[in-house]
């Protein structure tokens, strides 16, 4: 579908989802509620507790029950979604309950002991939640959360101390993450139309739309909720309803392709929100991609996020075999962390490309502060517009930029890499978040929360897609040397980013938003906060369950003998 036609259709799908999702007509809500509860009935792994505030705090429990919960309710019966009494097995369906769950708090993923099944408490604040979820499935749930129609927490007895109430607010900023403090010269005001970013989906206000009323516990509960659904995916399916599938498919077809002008707008929608915001949750190196953590070696040996990011950057410097004489092309600057580290270690020359004015400004300031302005050139340019130099680049590096290319232009991307990389001995290293092969076809047909609200135009390829394009577009001259999946390292990273984002929101992020956009109301700011909280938790769950991957692919031309360094010949 052409961009000229796609935008009206895309906006129409969003308008339909917003209007229908706000309906709270009694009979419709009852029908929607029954449909949702029936869909949740097959939960068998973990526990989901629903507290329905509009119905006087009625409590429904799905999934596994502990010893206390397995005792029959005081009325000796369970309640079906349609309200009729029946005896249901304790391990499968839901029943009314007034008891709290009690179990050990889940261990953090990555430790030697696997975490127990999640136990999640979902509090419904508005009846619009049921309509939104029944009609629009996962997108409906995301929008209900952003609007404050539902809050999610780890079940009460699983929290530290075993008491009820919201999970404690993340600790104040420490020295292991989120310490980036730009100098006065580096600080920039927030740019981009953030009002539109907050308003791109449901707006605050209207029927049932009062964001943040519950002050929910947020990300820990959200991550556990998403993990619960992944663990029960075979029984629950993808949760799609006929209407949600139709709207998602229409929006997916209408999604604007990443043409040259559209690509810049899509990047600006995420990265031009302001450097101060990203500095509030990233580590001081300002690397916004998956790091590589050391293996857990016991208490007291915890490394900082910055150390983990440096390990990943080192993997790229070593993997590309960068030498002082190399001219390196980086596609996707970020805030300059790779270029700075590569030049610091090797003395090479780097040309780096970005489509974000905000990133370019801060990257250049950081580069100048390091004294590397004569070695690093930052270009505000699309990779398709970069002229092929008389002497092609010795090495090409791209760190989590491929997700912004879009399905239609994956071939174009690797064709450009083929044109820009020297033919004799060139080496390229790419990092990209991937979708598993088995889920990729369904993913490609539908719009989801990430490519609608966070990364417009974004697309996660499969590993097979990447490898096929590398081979085809290079006419077989880019030889795959190594494929490494580091996706498991992302879960902890996203958790740390989320904790720092929330810990610093009131002090650093909220004032910056209000200063740049004085017309924003408090409800708009709250929608923005909950959107990002949802984003971090949504992605954390995807990686901790290995639903998503993140691969580093190293390729070399014939004659790239540097890749054999260290091998006895």
Automatic annotation (TrEMBL):
CDD domains with a match to the protein in the record: AdoMet_MTases
Gene3D superfamilies listed in its UniProt record: Vaccinia Virus protein VP39
Biased composition (Gly residues): 203-216
Residue ranges with Polar residues bias: 70-82
Coiled-coil parts of chain: none
Positions with biased composition (Low complexity): 98-111
Region named Disordered: 63-120, 160-216
Annotated PANTHER family: CYCLOPROPANE-FATTY-ACYL-PHOSPHOLIPID SYNTHASE, FATTY ACID C-METHYL TRANSFERASE
Name of this chain's protein: 5bbc1424-c7c1-41e6-8606-bc8ce38587cb
Natural source organism: Thermothielavioides terrestris
């Amino acid at each position: 579908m052409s961009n000229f036609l796609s935008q009206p259709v895309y906006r129409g799908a969003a308008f339909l989802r917003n209007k229908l999702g706000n309906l709270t007509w009694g009979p419709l809500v009852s029908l929607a509620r029954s449909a949702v509860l029936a869909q949740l009935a097959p939960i068998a792994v973990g526990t989901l507790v629903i507290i329905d505030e509009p119905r006087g705090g009625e409590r429904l429990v799905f999934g596994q029950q502990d010893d206390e919960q397995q005792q029959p309710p005081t009325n000796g019966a369970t309640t079906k979604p349609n309200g009729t009494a029946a005896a249901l097995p304790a391990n499968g369906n839901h029943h009314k309950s007034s008891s709290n769950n009690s179990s050990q708090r889940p261990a953090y993923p990555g430790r030697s002991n696997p975490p127990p099944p999640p136990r999640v408490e979902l509090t419904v604040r508005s009846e619009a939640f049921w309509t939104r979820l029944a009609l629009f499935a996962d997108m409906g749930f995301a929008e209900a959360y952003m609007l404050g129609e539902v809050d999610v927490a780890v079940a009460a007895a699983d929290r530290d101390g075993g008491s009820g109430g919201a999970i404690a607010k993340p600790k104040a900023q420490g020295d292991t993450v989120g310490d980036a403090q730009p100098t006065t010269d580096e600080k920039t005001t927030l740019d981009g139309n953030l009002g539109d970013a907050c308003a791109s989906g449901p707006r605050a206000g209207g029927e049932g739309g009062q964001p943040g009323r519950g002050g929910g516990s947020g990300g820990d509960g959200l991550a556990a909720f998403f993990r619960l659904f992944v663990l029960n995916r075979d029984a629950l399916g993808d949760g799609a309803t006929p209407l949600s599938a139709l709207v998602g498919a229409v929006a997916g077809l209408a999604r604007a392709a990443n043409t040259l002008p559209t690509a810049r707008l899509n990047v600006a929608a995420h990265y031009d929100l302001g450097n101060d915001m990203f500095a509030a949750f990233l580590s001081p190196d300002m690397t916004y991609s998956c790091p590589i953590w050391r293996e857990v070696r016991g208490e007291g040996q915890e490394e900082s996020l910055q150390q983990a990011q440096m390990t990943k950057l080192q993997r790229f410097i070593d993997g590309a075999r960068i030498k002082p004489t190399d001219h390196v092309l980086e596609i996707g600057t970020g805030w300059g962390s790779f270029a700075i580290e590569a030049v610091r270690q090797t003395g090479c020359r780097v040309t780096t490309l970005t489509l974000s004015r905000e990133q370019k400004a801060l990257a250049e300031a950081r580069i100048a502060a390091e004294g590397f302005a004569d070695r690093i050139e930052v270009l505000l340019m699309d990779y398709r517009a970069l002229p092929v130099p008389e002497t092609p680049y010795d090495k090409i590096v791209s760190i989590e930029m491929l997700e912004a290319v879009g399905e239609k232009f994956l071939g174009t991307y690797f064709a450009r890499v083929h044109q820009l990389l020297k033919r004799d001995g060139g080496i390229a290293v790419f990092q990209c978040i991937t979708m598993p092969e088995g889920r990729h076809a369904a993913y490609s047909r539908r719009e989801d929360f990430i490519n609608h609200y966070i990364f417009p135009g974004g697309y996660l390829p499969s590993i097979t897609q990447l490898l096929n394009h590398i081979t085809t577009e290079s006419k077989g001259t880019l030889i795959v040397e190594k494929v490494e999946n580091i996706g498991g390292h992302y879960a902890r990273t996203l958790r740390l980013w989320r904790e720092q984002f929330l810990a610093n929101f009131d002090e650093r992020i909220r004032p910056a938003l209000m200063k740049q956009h004085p017309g924003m109301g408090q409800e708009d700011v709250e929608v923005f906060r909950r959107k990002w909280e949802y984003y971090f938790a949504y992605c954390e769950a995807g990686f901790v369950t290995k639903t998503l991957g993140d691969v580093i692919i190293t390729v070399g031309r014939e004659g790239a003998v540097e890749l054999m360094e260290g091998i006895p010949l």
